[in-house]
Specification:
With 350 residues, the protein is an alpha/beta fold. The chain is 37% helix and 13% strand. It contains ten helices and ten strands. It has an eight-stranded parallel sheet with strand order 4-1-5-10-9-6-7-8, with helices on both faces. Helix 9 packs parallel to helix 10. The longest helix has 20 residues. The protein is globular, with a radius of gyration of 19 Å. The structure holds N-[3-({4-[(3-aminopropyl)amino]butyl}amino)propyl]acetamide (SP5) and zinc ion.
Length: 350
């Protein structure tokens, strides 16, 4: 499968995240993408760099301008605070306070206040090169999108940082800009009338849902750990079906802990039926492989070889398909990804 990749993802290099009551080494690290590209290179697939001159207007349609300016400048502001407070250690920017029920939603001037205002967790550190990596990921997904637009049947955007937890004006869950949503918007900009996004990451795509909740030109379907039990907890229930003209165009499959492939497959087939009825012109897959049985932060039980069948079921939709990398936190992450993509390719050729 034709892959778009750039080493610029390495510029986003968080040190620690808040996990189980203390700071632990980041799960979302450059090594993840390196493991994946290594597997892809071993298979001899064509790999291109993202195009430099790609049109970024879809990025500005999906995310609020003031949120994007915040992302672009936050690390400089953070650095100034560290210098003023005479801290020499290079510390990543990270929120520690949030607004909740009963509190106000006003953007504070203070950097700690701003970090909390634009985020929902303390697992998504911002480093010196984070903004550059974010833009590199957006260029990556938009380059892959362009290839599909011009007739390539499928492509894989090896994006890092991932995107599906990022909303129009918030970051979290290792995500800053919603690569899959930006690609969907770009398809619409270039003439598509209906786009479907299917999110198979273990975690609910809360950002993607928020972005398209009031719209009917993007159908969003997510299969994920039940929010009553699983991160990100505060969205992803079955009764969230969209609002206004978006009613019926958001579909959630909250699944119990320890869901295995047989159970997963049943919901996936149901989701694929809904997509078929919607008749989209393109399919965007938020490809998280953290549903694997040995993933370090998730609780599903999909075996490595079962990812091939996932890919072949997706191919049976017979749609131009853009795969966008999301989660997956274990040594064999590259094998899981190439199993999905190989399953897809093989089904296409038979
Ligand atoms: C893109 C993506 O996959 N983001 C996921 C972010 C999850 N971060 C918090 C993980 C909390 C893990 N809880 C441990 C439960 C292990 N049974
Ligand atoms: Zn995930």
């Amino acid at each position: 499968m034709f892959t778009i990749y750039t080493e610029d993802h390495r510029l986003h290099n968080g040190k620690e995240e808040f996990h189980r009551g203390k700071m632990e080494e980041c799960f979302e690290c450059p090594r993840r993408a390196e493991l994946i590209i290594q597997n892809i290179r071993e298979l001899g697939w064509k790999v291109d760099e993202p195009k430099r001159q790609v049109d970024l207007s879809a990025l500005y349609r999906i995310h609020q301008p003031r949120y994007l300016s915040f992302l672009q400048t936050v690390y400089e502001q953070w650095q100034r605070v560290l210098i003023r407070e005479e801290i020499e250690e290079k510390i990543d920017a990270m929120p520690h306070v949030w607004s909740c029920r009963g509190l106000r939603q006003i953007e504070p001037k203070n950097i700690y206040g701003k970090l909390g205002y634009y985020s929902f967790d303390a697992a998504t550190p911002i480093t010196a090169g984070t903004w550059q990596a974010i833009i590199a990921a957006v260029r990556t997904v938009l380059t892959a999108q362009q290839f599909i637009q011009s007739g390539t049947i499928a492509s894989f955007a090896l994006t890092r940082p991932p995107g599906h937890h990022a909303g129009s004006d918030f970051f979290g869950g290792y995500c800053f800009c919603n690569n899959a949503a930006i690609a969907a918007e770009a398809f619409l900009q270039s003439g598509a009338k209906r786009v479907a996004i299917l999110d198979v990451d273990y975690h609910h795509g809360n950002g993607t849902q928020q972005i398209f909740y009031h719209r009917n030109d993007v159908l969003f379907i997510s299969l994920h750990g039940d929010p009553a039990e699983a991160y990100p907890y505060f969205l992803g229930y079955r009764d969230e079906t969209g609002e206004g003209v978006g009613k019926g165009f958001n579909v959630n499959y909250p699944l119990p802990l320890n869901t295995d492939w047989e159970q997963y497959r049943t919901s996936l087939l149901d989701a694929l039926n809904i997509i078929e009825t919607y008749r989209p012109e393109v399919l965007v897959i938020s490809l998280g492989v953290d549903t694997y049985e040995d993933d370090d932060i998730s609780d599903f039980c999909i075996a490595m070889h079962e990812f091939n069948e996932m890919g072949s079921l997706l191919a049976q939709m017979n749609l131009p398909t853009l795969f966008v990398m999301e989660g997956g936190y274990y040594e064999e992450v590259g094998t899981a990804v190439t199993n999905v993509l190989t399953g897809f390719d093989q089904a296409k050729h038979t």
